[in-house]
Every structure is written in structure tokens, then in C-alpha cells.
Write a structure and sequence with these properties.
The complex is a heterodimer.
Chain A lengths: L31 H5 L22 E2 L2 E2 L4 H13 L5 E4 L2 H4 L23 H7 L9 E5 L4 H15 L7 E4 L4 H7 L6 H18 L3 E2 L1 E4 L1 H5 L4 H21 L4 H4 L3 E7 L3 H22 L12 E5 L11 H15 L4 E3 L12 H17 L13 H24 L2 H7 L1 H18 L27 H16 L2 H17 L5 H9 L4 H12 L8
Parallel strand pairs in A: 1-10, 2-3, 3-4, 4-5, 5-6, 7-8, 8-9, 9-10
Helix pairs in contact in A: 2-4, 5-19, 9-11, 9-14, 11-12, 11-14, 12-13, 18-19, 18-20
Chain B lengths: L5 E5 L8 H12 L3 E4 L6 H10 L4 E6 L4 H14 L6 E6 L6 H6 L4 E3 L5 H11 L4
Parallel strand pairs in B: 1-2, 1-3, 3-4, 4-5
The chains are: A alpha/beta, B alpha/beta.
């Protein structure tokens, strides 16, 4: 039996106590001009555009990738045909970890949780029939982001597309990898250098590209609270700005291309407060801490994905409802783009059918509910404004602690954010097991003997096909050119004072594989081993 | 003689999602087990070796990347070769229903899917471990 409702504490998903009623008394400290401002005006708490979704809807961007490049290319065409407005590529783990598909560590992983990309040849297949100057593409790649982005740029070059017209995002956020998702290759210092190189290169050559998506999503999935997600993510942003300035970049050159990525969990108001506080805190950081001059440098734009960790394997159709509520939070919070998870994602990668329902969920919110008619419709709610102010205050507290530790890289080396997240995730698990928090279908309203649902199975022939293509590529390409470009790459990395992008682009153009390029960089930079906490 | 149940918690493959592994390691410690967490990206050889070196009673494998059907059978084979037949092996992660019988066939004792409670996992281990 569940605990009597009266015994259960009234708290947010993150465990923050909530009062019975909020009134004007709760927001006496709120000053409209200073704390909110109209939508489109500083500090942007209410949104970054005056008319918000009246001007343009958010970009509906479903993350997808599996099997070979040809398999995923087919799914991209399917999603575009059904009204998706941007692409988002999921790469398989070997690509994310800088290994080719035929590396021993790649065994069993090829094409499993994303698309297998080993070289430019795969990238050409991935975007076949998709004009890159007319679509925006997000690529979830971090440690090898500079290389994957180079592959994309070369595909565009060969399509005859002008780099200056390319739009999209590389995730390129290594700090949250050390903190949460753990898909790192090199140690922090060379990783930060590569990231700043992409900022610099993008500013000059690919000016409409978001060269980083500073991500809280994975921090939250690792079990953080909403506040920890927000504070660590924004502080990661501060760290990138600090490193870029130290490398001699002008803040107003690159800051307008910084973008963010947040999670949308189940607690509607807590999530909306998080997005609103994010914009306000970032505005204050950029103007007060860094003194930016370009107004665009202080505007926080973000992508949202609904919370994978909130979905249940039990009674999976219920996930459609969870995703709808989470997506509602993202839209009411003013997101610029959105991925809605599919109902079957605790079981496998989504089927076409499940992916379509997820996309339709966004279309229903956009076109049927009326929530897009006015900007920040919940602004002024006593409860929401209190939550937003508290979320902001919590951020400054974390920032003080992180400043005192000497910044995020230093804090990561001490294991601080990692430990905070582990504690929160364990507390959450215990709360579920004590039934202080109810998950429908898991610890309450349980059903025995549920009928199974159809899931997507990745065909076992993927590995063989991918390795065969790779073998052919190594035979047919100009291997002398590969050697020469890799040697130049090695030298550039060793000097440590030139931008790495031109040498990486040369390697890519010569069809050097991702694994070969990463091996070359590993030999100079070394690899990161996580300390145990 | 050491009465504590010794558990090796391991993450095979390239997957870095360690929330589950860390939560379960802590729950095992709270339950009074001796826990050895191998860290990320262990090869099947490293895991079998850790089970042997640590004199494990239980090996808990966490896989979320879909590579379990390649990695788990290999770990089971290597453990058998080391004579570790009496070690209880449990697997957690994103494991589709249809793979469970195949995993059990190669010697995995139990599979815990998303939503499994740490209490259930702990009590399963208490009931099934063959303490040396």
C-alpha cells in the first residue's frame, strides 16, 4: 500500500519543500524591471523574443541515429517528410569514444546506440540527398567534436554549400562528460584547447554555427536535482568563457554562438522556473562578471530534451503522457528547440511508430493547445516567481563554492560535482523505495503480466557491413596523403599554439578515419582516467 | 573467515552511464556487502580477472548501450575458464525481455530491468549467493 498522502512530504521532484499556498507576500522581493523584464528585454527571464512563438515556433528536432549511415539517412528522410524541422544526429559509442568500428573496444557496440561513423565516406552517406545549406543539424558529439564537425564541413564543401550559411550545433561540451556522462577521451586541458579552437574557427568561418551546447541534460540524467543541473551547467559556461578569454578570444566574438541544453523532468513548475532562472543568471553573468558589450552575448538560447530517466519500462504507453507534460514545461519555459522522447526508449532505440508519436506530441502542443499565443503565459504566478527567484539564489550559492575551488576543472578534479550528483541520485532512489515519491506503474498502480510491445532491434549484420566498408576505404584511399596529413596534425598538436581545425580538416578530406585522427591526438594529449571517489 | 558478501560491480563496454552502477554499489554497501567497483570501460578479461583477484561471491554487470549480448556471454565464458562457476552473476540495464532467456542460458543468474528496486536486488543476492 502507498503511504497516506498526508504522510508524504510536499516537495518538488528535486526534494525542495513546497508550501500550501503562495501569495503576494511570497514575492515581495520581486522587482519587475530587475528580475523579470518584458519578453525580449533584459534580463530575459520571460523569454528572449518579444513575441516568442508568435514569430516562429521552436525547432522540432528529434535525436536519431542507429545502424549504418545508410540506415540513419533513411530515418532522416522519414522524419523530414513528417514535418520535423531540424536534424539531430546520435552517434554510436565507438565514434563518441574515438574508436573505429573495427577496434577491439568497439565489439558489440557498432550501430547500437547511434549511427556508426568512421570517416568522411560515412558522413557523405549520412547526409545524402539533404542540402546542408537548407537544414539545421545538431550533432551530439563531445570529445571528438572538432573531428565530426570537420567531417560535416567537408560534406557541405563537396555539396557546394557556403560554410557561412550553415546552421547547426555541435554539443562539444566536455566538462559535463567528466561530471556526468563520462564519454571523454583526452584530459581536461587539451580538451578545453580543442573546444576553444572550434569557437575561434567558427567565429571566422562558420558564423551561424553554435560551436557548443553547454549541457545540463546529462547532469540531470545522472541523477542531479534541477538546481544542480542549472548551476553546474551555467558554471560550465563560465569556465568555457574563462578559457576562451585566456586563449585571447574577444568575448563578444564567440559568446553569441554559445548555446545551452537542458532536461525537462516531471515537475512542471520546477522545470519552468529552471529555464526562466537560466536566462536571468546567464544575463547577469555575461554582463556583470564578464562585461560583454554585444547584447547577443548575454542571451541564453537553449534546446530541451524530455527526461529519459523519468520514463518507465513498465506500462510504456504511460510514457507518452509523461513526455507531453515535460514538453509542455519546456515550451512554457521558452525553449528554442525540443526533442521529445519516444515511449519505448527505456527498452531500446525508438521504432518509427514511437518516434512519430513523440513528434506528434510537439505538433499537438504547438497547434492545438493555445500555449503559443502569448509569451511567458505563467509570468507573475506567485508560486512560479518564487521558485524562479529561489532557483537563481541557489545558483549564486553554488557559483561561490565553485569559485572558491578555483573553477570547474579544479572542482571536477576534486570530484565535487560528481559527488553532489551521486548523493542526489541515491537520495532520489531511496525516496522512490520509501514511496515518498510515486512512479506510476513502478512502485504504485503496478500491473502483472503486461503484454510486450514491439521494439526496434538492430540487425546484427551492421557490424560486418560497417567493418567491410572500412576495410575497402583503407584499401582505396590515398594512404600516402593520409600519412602526411596525420603527421601534420601530430605536429600541430605538439606545438599547442595553433588552431587545430585546419589540420583536422585536412585529415578528414584525405579520408583519415576518426580512430586514426584520435589515436594521433592521444599520442600527444594522453587519455583521461577518472579518479575514483 | 570473512562473512561479508563480496560483490564486484563492473561496467563492461564503452558505455559511461554509471548512475545505476553507482546507486547499486552504494545500496550494496548500505546492505553490508563488501563492494569493489571496477570503474568504467572494462574489457571482459578485466572483469573476469577482477572477479578472480577479489575473490568475489557476486559479479554485478551494468550495461545500457545495447552491447550486452556480446559482452555478457564473453564474461561468462572467461569466468568459467577461471573456474568461477559458483560466482553469482547479475545484470542490470537496458535489457529487452527477449534477451533475458539467452543471458540466463549462458549462466547469468538474474537480470534487473529499469525500475528494479535496490531492496529487491539486495534480497535476491542474499537468497542466492553461495558464500564460500
Amino acid at each position: 500500500m502507498a503511504k497516506d498522502v498526508k504522510e508524504r512530504p510536499f516537495t518538488t521532484v528535486s526534494g525542495v519543500p513546497v508550501e500550501q499556498l503562495y501569495t503576494a507576500d511570497h514575492i515581495r522581493d520581486l522587482n519587475y524591471e530587475k528580475d523579470l523584464g518584458d519578453p525580449g528585454s533584459p534580463p530575459y527571464t520571460r523569454g528572449i523574443y518579444p513575441g516568442m512563438y508568435r514569430g516562429r515556433l521552436w525547432t522540432m528536432r528529434q535525436f536519431s541515429g542507429f545502424g549504418t549511415a545508410a540506415d540513419t539517412n533513411e530515418r532522416f528522410h522519414y522524419l523530414l517528410k513528417h514535418g520535423q524541422t531540424g536534424l539531430s544526429v546520435a552517434f554510436h559509442l565507438p565514434t563518441l569514444m574515438g574508436y573505429d568500428s573495427d577496434h577491439p573496444m568497439s565489439e558489440g557496440e557498432v550501430g547500437k546506440c547511434g549511427v556508426a561513423i568512421d570517416s568522411l565516406a560515412d558522413m557523405e552517406t549520412l547526409f545524402k540527398g539533404i542540402p546542408l545549406d537548407r537544414i539545421s543539424t545538431s550533432m551530439t558529439t563531445n570529445a571528438p567534436a572538432a573531428i565530426v564537425w570537420s567531417m560535416y564541413l567537408v560534406v557541405a564543401e563537396r555539396q557546394g554549400a557556403d560554410w557561412k550559411r550553415l546552421r547547426g550545433t555541435i554539443q562539444n561540451d566536455i566538462l559535463k562528460e567528466y561530471i556526468a556522462q563520462k564519454t571523454y577521451i583526452f584530459p581536461p586541458r587539451p580538451s578545453m584547447k580543442l573546444i576553444v579552437d572550434t569557437f575561434e574557427f567558427g567565429t571566422e568561418h562558420v558564423p551561424q554555427w553554435n560551436t557548443i551546447s553547454i549541457s545540463g541534460y546529462h547532469i540531470r540524467e545522472a541523477g542531479s536535482t534541477a538546481l544542480q543541473e542549472l548551476a553546474f551547467t551555467l558554471y560550465d559556461g563560465i569556465e568555457y568563457v574563462e578559457w576562451a578569454r585566456r586563449q585571447g578570444l574577444d568575448i563578444d566574438d564567440f559568446a553569441p554562438r554559445l548555446s545551452f541544453f537542458f532536461n525537462a523532468h516531471n515537475d512542471l513548475f520546477e522545470e519552468i522556473a529552471k529555464y526562466r532562472a537560466a536566462r536571468k543568471v546567464w544575463y547577469r553573468v555575461m554582463t556583470e562578471r564578464f562585461g560583454c558589450k554585444n547584447p547577443k552575448s548575454a542571451v541564453l538560447r537553449f534546446h530541451t530534451q524530455t527526461a529519459g530517466c523519468s520514463l518507465t519500462a513498465q506500462q510504456p504507453y504511460n510514457n507518452i503522457v509523461r513526455v507531453a507534460v515535460q514538453a509542455l514545461a519546456a515550451v512554457l519555459g521558452g525553449t528554442q528547440s525540443l526533442h521529445t522522447n519516444s515511449l519505448d526508449e527505456t527498452l531500446a532505440l525508438p521504432t518509427e511508430h514511437a518516434a512519430r508519436i513523440a513528434l506528434r506530441t510537439q505538433q499537438i502542443l504547438a497547434h492545438e493547445t493555445g500555449i503559443t499565443n502569448t509569451a511567458d503565459p505563467l509570468g507573475g504566478s506567485y508560486f512560479l516567481e518564487r521558485l524562479t527567484l529561489d532557483m537563481e539564489r541557489g545558483c549564486w550559492d553554488y557559483f561561490d563554492r565553485l569559485d572558491a575551488m578555483g573553477g570547474m576543472v579544479a572542482a571536477i578534479e576534486r570530484g565535487f560535482p560528481q559527488r553532489e550528483i551521486q548523493d542526489a541520485s541515491y537520495e532520489y532512489q531511496k525516496a522512490i523505495e520509501r514511496k515518498e515519491k510515486i512512479t506510476v506503474g513502478v512502485n504504485e498502480f503496478v500491473m502483472e503480466n503486461e503484454p510486450p510491445i514491439d521494439i526496434l532491434l538492430i540487425d546484427d549484420s551492421v557490424t560486418g557491413r560497417q567493418i567491410e566498408q572500412l576495410r575497402k576505404l583503407r584499401q582505396t584511399r590515398d594512404n600516402d596523403r593520409v600519412k602526411t596529413t596525420l603527421k601534420s596534425l601530430h605536429e600541430a598538436a605538439a606545438t599547442n599554439d595553433v588552431n587545430m581545425m585546419p589540420s583536422i580538416l585536412d585529415c578528414v578530406r584525405a579520408y583519415a578515419t576518426l580512430g586514426e585522427i584520435c589515436d594521433e591526438l592521444r599520442s600527444v594529449y594522453g587519455v583521461y582516467e577518472e579518479p575514483t571517489f | 573467515m570473512n562473512e561479508k558478501v563480496r560483490v564486484v560491480v563492473a561496467k563492461p563496454g564503452l558505455d559511461g552511464h554509471d548512475r545505476g552502477a553507482k546507486v547499486i554499489a552504494r545500496a550494496f554497501r548500505d546492505a553490508g556487502f563488501e563492494v569493489i567497483y571496477t570503474g568504467l570501460r572494462q574489457t571482459p578479461e578485466q572483469i573476469a580477472n577482477a572477479a578472480l583477484q577479489e575473490d568475489a561471491d557476486v559479479v554485478g554487470l551494468s550495461v545500457l548501450s545495447g552491447a550486452h549480448m556480446t559482452l555478457c556471454p564473453r564474461i561468462m565464458d572467461l569466468m568459467k575458464k577461471e573456474g568461477l562457476d559458483d560466482v553469482l552473476v547479475v545484470v542490470g540495464g537496458i535489457i529487452p525481455d527477449q534477451d533475458i532467456p539467452k543471458l540466463k542460458e549462458c549462466g547469468v543468474s538474474q537480470v534487473f530491468q529499469p525500475g528494479a528496486s535496490t531492496e529487491d536486488i539486495v534480497s535476491y543476492i542474499r537468497q542466492n549467493v553461495r558464500k564460500k
